[in-house]
Amino acid sequence: MSERIEYVTRPREEIAGVLRRERRFLSAADIHARLSRARARVALSTVYRTLEYLHGKGEITERVDAAGEASYMFCEPQRHHHHAICRTCGKVEDVDCTAVDSFARELRKLHGFTLDDHAMEFSGRCRACR
């Protein structure tokens, strides 16, 4: 995000700072561990509450893995996109998906089906990990 958003409390600022610096999905435990290593005194419960707050405001994206663990990342909600996630290092790249709009039009035209929502995620290895 280009503009700096104020989060009222220092713990919220520190949590948001971790998410801003990382270009990968992080769980609450990951964020808490990074804050602990940086000697920030933020309770794990505060991390969870802040993630809920930021997600509710639409400032972060939530991803739930196969085991049911949620992880979060700052994301640009202004434009429609998906994510390419490196399986090795976890780095995330935004992927514009104008093809999905074309697919939705064809789905409606051929089958009379109106697409309300969709979720797509691409996984592989980034340039640095290949």
Explain how this protein is built.
The protein has four helices and five strands; from the N terminus they run αααββββαβ. By secondary structure, the chain is α+β, with helices and mostly antiparallel strands. The chain has two domains: 65 residues, Arc Repressor Mutant, subunit A; 49 residues, Dna Ligase, domain 1 (2-Layer Sandwich). A hairpin with a 5-residue loop joins strand 3 and strand 4.
Count of spatially separate domains: 2
Strands of the widest sheet, in order across it, are: 4-3-5
Helix and strand run: HHHEEEEHE
CATH class of the largest domain: Mainly Alpha
CATH architecture identity of the largest domain: Orthogonal Bundle
Work out the helix count.
4
- Major sheet, described briefly? 3 strands, mixed
- Radius of gyration from CA coordinates: 17 Å
List how many beta strands DSSP finds: 5
Strand content: 15-25%
What is the CATH T-level topology of the largest domain? Arc Repressor Mutant, subunit A
Q: Report mean pLDDT, rounded to a whole number.
A: 88
Residues in helix, %: 25-40%
| Structural classification | alpha+beta
Question: What are the low-pLDDT stretches, counting only 5+ consecutive residues below 50?
Answer: none
Q: CATH H-level name of the largest domain... which superfamily?
A: Winged helix-like DNA-binding domain superfamily/Winged helix DNA-binding domain
Characterize the overall form: elongated
Terminal CA distance: 28 Å
